Amino acid sequence: MAGPRSALLVIDMINRFDFDGGRALARAAAPASRRIAWLCGRFRTVDWPVILVNDNFMDWKADFREICAVCSQDGMEGAEIARRLAPVPGDYFVLKPRHSAFHASPLDALLESLDVDRLVITGVATDACVLATALDAHMRDYALAVPRDCVASITPARRDRALAVLRDNCHADTRGSRSIAP
Question: How far is residue 136's CA from residue 130's CA, in Å, rounded to a whole number?
Fold first, then answer.
């Protein structure tokens, strides 16, 4: 099937942020979520895939809609982010059990069916799940963009170190979201 060549991955932004360092990560993720929402709009406008990839929080009975509902509740640390980035009709979603979006998930099959060869990876944490996903994508020969204003880590230094690894070792485009075409 002919289709879009690029896909936008939104990693772990539907999140409770209820772990050690979660509050700091949520604060860093808030401005990134606004840029990600803008980028989602650009991808949707040209009918390129937006794929929300999320941790299942080791709740093997929950589906993506349940996770979105829990994370969007008032009082949750990441409620505003979850509401801002909630999937819309036409979006795809993948639950992952570990750091990489590729590990033990259907992401490979989905990307193949969409005829994707370039991934724009956004989300949290740059130095954990974003990094693991990008490294796995690089090993699968995807072209990569990881816009620096669309990712967050507990500290800016951790984000910057991960982006340097991706730029230097995976040839990832780490410029800001405005440089990302569709």
Answer: 10
Which runs of E-coded beta strand occur in the chain? 6-11, 50-55, 92-96, 118-124, 143-145, 151-152
Residue 33 has pLDDT above 70, yes or no: yes
Q: Which residues contact 37 (CB under 8 A, 6 or more apart)?
A: 84, 85
The answer to whether residues 124 and 12 touch, using CB atoms and an 8 Å cutoff, is: yes
**For the chain, the helix, strand and coil percentages under 3-state DSSP, each to the nearest 5:** 45, 15, 40
| Dist. CA 178–CA 13, nearest whole Å | 20
**pLDDT at residue number 1:** 44
Query: CA-CA distances (angstroms) from residue 182 to 1, 35, 49, 125, 144?
Result: 20, 15, 11, 24, 14
Q: Rounded to an integer, what distance in angstroms lies between the CA atom of residue 95 and that of residue 105?
A: 7
Strand 118-124 to 143-145 pairing: parallel
Higher per-residue pLDDT: 97 or 38: 38
Q: Say what the pLDDT of residue 2 is.
A: 52
